[in-house]
Amino acid sequence: xxxxxxxxxxxxxxxxxxxxxxxxxxxxxxxxxxxxxxxxxxxxxxxxxxxxxxxxxxxxxxxxxxxxxxxxxxxxxxxxxxxxxxxxxxxxxxxxxxxxxxxxxxxxxxxxxxxxxxxxxxxxxxxxxxxxxxxxxxxxxxxxxxxxxxxxxxxxxxxxxxxxxxxxxxxxxxxxxxxxxxxxxxxxxxxxxxxxxxxxxxxxxxxxxxxxxxxxxxxxxxxxxxxxxxxx
Length: 232
Description:
By secondary structure, the protein is an alpha+beta fold. About 30% of the residues lie in helices and about 20% in strands. The chain is built from 6 helices and 12 strands. A 5-stranded antiparallel beta sheet has the order 8-5-7-6-12. The protein has a 3-stranded antiparallel beta sheet with strand order 1-4-9. Strands 2-3 form a two-stranded antiparallel sheet. Strand 10 (about 185) and strand 11 form a beta hairpin.
């Protein structure tokens, strides 16, 4: 697996971004950078603890579906802050807490299978499309950041292309949802990583209409291959 300080390259994505320096950086410092340099709201989630020689989620659930990478309280949305000072204060209480970003505020997100995401990302780069940040998660998903409000348009846009979003496993994330940000670790599976880092060049996020066609096509192809029992 790639080191979490590396960008997963598709066509040689530049390493010029200053957010975040993942290796050796404290989670607190990275969370502060997201708030101060990107103006994203952040909030601390659960963390991983060593118990009996194994790491488990601080929530103490043996069957936790996202160990070390989910909210610690039901009112997490009210805890989120865009202040670097407030973020530093929150992480000082638990420096090992995961970094979670609420969607539906400064950005929405499109969550797709990793295989479809890489296919779509390569196509978008060949077309020289404007892209925002993109993450890869340890559970083999990719998350594309888009302008806020985009999640509400996804169902209608995908339907016009001849699919349903749920049938092709294209999941819109908007208000009352969240994503885990690099370098958050998820159990023993690995860390969330950047496929495309946040840079000054992608500070202005794309509208969902710009990305939906290549993403839906890639997800549709992925879903069809899965139904046929063959690789995408």
